[in-house]
Design a protein that fits this description.
Elements lengths: L6 E8 L3 H12 L4 E4 L13 E3 H10 L2 H7 L1 E2 L2 E5 L5 E6 L12 E3 L2 H12 L5 E4 L2 E7 L8 E7 L5 E11 L6 H5 L4 E3 L4 E9 L10 E4 L6 E5 L4 E7 L12 H8 L12 E10 L2 E3 L3 E2 L2 E3 L5 E2 L7 H20 L9 H26 L3 H15 L4 H6 L30 E3 L5 E3 H5 L4 E4 L5 H10 L2 E4 L4 E3 L7 E4 L1 H10 L2 E6 L5 E6 L9 H8 L2 H4 L4 H4 L6 E2 L5
């Protein structure tokens, strides 16, 4: 009897949380098939992550669910810091409803609802298969470079074991990652772990509490409160040394803990959905890749919750890796491109973790003396001009210079940062978010005529060119009444500074910039020369010769 050959897939994604579903969807949008393996047949029903920022909302735009996510999320108003008696020490308000990425800077949501959106959206992509009800039991790295990875899994209903081969494996399987163990990676501690109790409550009556995030800066009982939906609320309480979660989880004690936020609310209206003790860790894996096996999300890093970046970091992992893997799989880049994943993401995640640890220590650390000093200093800080903007602004640091991040030039946008995303007019005059015009791949924003060398680079990268023309608009039927320049286009031109062109990666990170030329000159020889040095990694040999000339889109035409 002839043995049946094992199933062979291009990419196996292990774990169907937000990170895994995002990675699979982005791969599909880039033309790469993926199989997602997940223990649960439906989204895990209880909330875990509850916050994402405008940069990650932009990633949801790349996935295709930003509009439906906006319907299920609530923008956070800001943050209050309170002492142990719930007196307000400082208040930081968000005045701008939209951040630089085109979405609210802080978005509260219910994770099961987000996962359902991602699953529903996945069904629109025939290149992706989601296989639920299976438990991955082993991931075996190949003995030889270039050989597929062996993935073993068991059907939870039938207990039948199966094996498949994958050209790449993405380990999105959480803090207790089997994939991490398979590649011999270990977590490194960046700070002492803390034990917290998380309480999720549903109440049909609105609680009489300020709408933003509350941070209780009390070393004796640090706590966080936030409204995450129309009828959903979350509290997090730090456990004291030696305290057990069971001491706080009977209903009477829980109601006492949340009482400062629930005056006048009948007890029978407060429905406790979940209580769970969590160890908030600050960890990063020492190794994120072995061959074509990669770690993403909690498998690669664990972030304390003080800046709400745990889920955000995993989504950034997916966004960073998907386009690189897709270019390699479709023959448009060399394997060396994949080396940049750990180099870029590990350093970025580590910096965010340290920021979270430091902020947590400032808000909740120390003893009685530290608390008294904090109570005296915070009110003064909150009154400083620009304090709210500084405290609440995006915390994501820029990527450092490397093979895919050029050197910084005075007066130019900083490579390693993402470009802003204003509303800009399409060719028919309809206002659209910038990324909708940029497409899935590389893009070039330009305010000057491109040089032949830059045109050649654009062809090589299959980049879409957006010509920005910061010219006045005219209202139809007014005989040429000047309405002023389009504000979105003006914002981009202002952001470009003295650069004449800015090359964006598919994840909208600035790769490199070109100087604005003198009148009558073309732009881009300097940018082309810088990026050509990386060409063997970014694109396959001979690509430029057969690539079609992209059609520049002009802001003068409204595009």
């Amino acid at each position: 009897m002839t043995a049946t050959a094992p199933e062979h897939v291009p990419v196996a994604v292990i774990g169907a949380g937000p990170t895994g579903l995002t990675a699979a969807t982005l791969l599909a949008r880039h033309g790469v098939p993926a199989l997602v393996l997940e223990r649960h047949r439906a989204p895990y029903p209880l909330p875990r992550a509850v916050h994402l920022d405008d940069e990650v909302h932009r990633i949801l735009q790349a996935v295709g669910i930003h509009e439906t996510f906006s319907e299920i999320s609530r923008p956070a108003r800001g943050m209050q810091l309170l002492d142990g008696s719930h007196r307000v020490l400082a208040e930081f308000l968000r005045d701008n409803p939209c951040g630089r990425h085109g979405f609210p800077e802080a978005n509260m949501f219910d994770q099961p609802e987000l996962e359902q959106l991602l699953r529903d959206n996945l069904a629109k992509h025939p290149l992706v298969t989601l296989r639920g009800g299976v438990e991955v039991t082993a991931v075996t790295p190949p003995r030889h470079s270039g050989a597929p990875v062996e993935v073993s899994f068991r059907d939870k209903d039938t207990s039948v074991s199966h094996t498949l081969l994958a050209d790449a494996v993405l380990g999105c399987d959480g803090a207790n990652s089997l994939v991490r163990a398979a590649i011999g990676s270990q977590m490194q501690d960046l700070a002492t772990a803390q034990e917290w109790l998380v309480v999720d409550v549903r109440c049909r009556l609105p609680l009489p509490a300020w709408e933003g995030v509350h941070q209780i800066c009390d070393p004796q009982r640090a706590a966080t409160y936030m409204r995450i939906g129309e009828d959903r609320y979350r509290w997090e309480f730090r456990l004291r040394t030696g305290e057990q979660p069971e001491e706080l989880t009977d209903r009477k004690r829980l109601l006492e803990l949340i009482a400062p936020w629930t005056p006048g609310i009948p007890e029978d209206e407060l429905h406790v959905l979940r209580t769970a003790s969590y160890t908030f860790r600050a960890q990063v894996a020492d190794r994120w890749r072995k061959g074509r096996i990669f770690l993403l999300g909690d498998a690669a890093h664990l972030t304390p919750p003080f800046i709400g970046q745990g889920l955000c970091a995993g989504m950034r992992d997916a966004h960073n890796l998907a386009w690189k893997l897709a270019r390699v799989f479709t023959g448009r880049a060399s394997e060396a491109l994949l080396n940049s994943y750990q180099a870029e993401r590990r350093r970025h995640a580590r910096q965010l973790i340290r920021t979270a640890v430091a902020l947590g220590a400032v808000m909740t650390g120390g003893g009685t003396g530290t608390a008294l000093a904090r109570n005296a200093v915070l009110p003064a800080i909150s009154r400083l001009p620009g304090a709210s903007s500084l405290v609440l602004s995006a915390v994501s640091p820029p990527l450092r210079p490397g093979p895919l991040v050029g050197s910084r030039r005075r007066g130019h946008p900083r490579p390693g940062t993402q470009c802003p995303q204003p509303l800009v007019p399409d060719t028919d005059g309809t206002s659209r978010l910038l990324d909708d015009l940029l497409g899935e791949g590389f893009a070039l924003l330009a305010t000057a005529t491109l040089s032949p060398a830059l045109h050649a680079l654009v062809r090589t990268l299959d980049a879409r060119v957006i010509q920005l023309r910061d010219v006045p608009r005219q209202q139809p039927g007014t005989g040429g009444a000047d309405l002023g320049a389009d504000p979105g286009t003006s914002a981009l031109v202002h952001w470009m500074g003295t650069a004449g062109a800015v090359l964006l990666r598919p994840d909208r990170v600035v790769l490199a910039t070109a100087a604005r030329p003198r009148p009558g000159r073309t732009c881009g020889d300097d940018l082309a020369a810088a990026v050509t040095a990386w060409a063997p990694m970014l694109c396959s040999s001979g690509r430029a010769a057969g690539a079609p000339q992209p059609r520049p889109r002009s802001r003068r035409d409204g595009g």
